[in-house]
Design goal:
Length: 339
Amino acid sequence: WPTTGEDGESPVEVVGHELVHSGKVRGLYVPLDPQTGGRDDLRLLLAASDRISAYDHVLSTPIPDKGSVLTQMSLWWFDQLADLVPHHVVSTDVPEEVAGRGVYVRRLRMLPVECVARAYLTGGGLAEYAATGTVSGVALPEGLVDGSRLPEPVFTPSTKAPVGEHDQPISFTDVEALVGPRLAARLRDLTVAILVRGNEIAAGRGILIADTKVEFGVDPQQLADALGIPLEQATEGEVDWAGVDPDVVAVVLADEVLTPDSSRFWRADEWAPGRTQTSYDKQVLRDWLTSPASGWDRASDAPPPPLPDDVVALTRDRYVEAYETLTGRAFDPSGTTSS
Ligand code: ATP
Ligand code: MG
């Protein structure tokens, strides 16, 4: 976690807020009313830390400014995508403890699906293709290899696994069973449209976005009204998603979008199907971790060692470079620079 001081383990405290969830990299806070101390039901504070993960481990060494870079990048993308999908951001005027890396968002009822789309074949998609010739059940041409561009982006959803477990791939039919056919189709179409738009923009700037994961939610009050259920139930109780018409209840883009944590970024000029692609953001880190210099055995259960300063600095540079290349803006850690 950023600015936590010594242990680097516990999330930063934010005055006037209660931490309600801490993920591997981000924290979620509920604002408290300064007078009554009561919880604000409408907003959440979402703050990205400087922690970084590699090879399924969260490393003990943070990357300075990473949380801020990713938050600024997400904000920029929300803007770029605003004509495709509404987003959850309310304000970037946040407490100083999380300046630059925190955002206030509308509190949404999240849909129970991790929405993934792939424009290029690699990772879990490649593994499925090698075994069955399909990705998420969608038949693909023969002869594709690691890094191949798909004829068109494919929706490859997964479950939202509980903390500490891995998301499991599911089929489109499974998504229909979870949220009904209308919402399932909307989630698929929006996810694919976001990745297509992302690549249209990034391609002109030398970056390929191989795949991405997004999360969507709906306004609890709208949900309650549409289904005729109490607000409390719409907020955290049982919901009959199949009864929701996405033309009536707006599907809102939440969480983060098209960041290197939620997506695979590749350098367009180094793209070479048939091998593992180099990662725009994490390659320096991965190369060091798997080199003799780190002394770490990836196959062991041991946590990776602390990172040397030069690896930290080079990795930070990569994140800043990705942000500046994509957005054409100079990176400002405090996030106060407009356009
Ligand atoms: P991991 O580290 O594996 O990603 P995680 O998904 O639990 O774990 P985060 O992604 O950091 O951790 O946590 C963000 C959480 O906030 C997610 O559960 C996400 O669904 C939720 N979330 C994001 N935006 C909103 C929103 N607008 N309203 C309500 N919940 C939200
Ligand atoms: Mg997450």
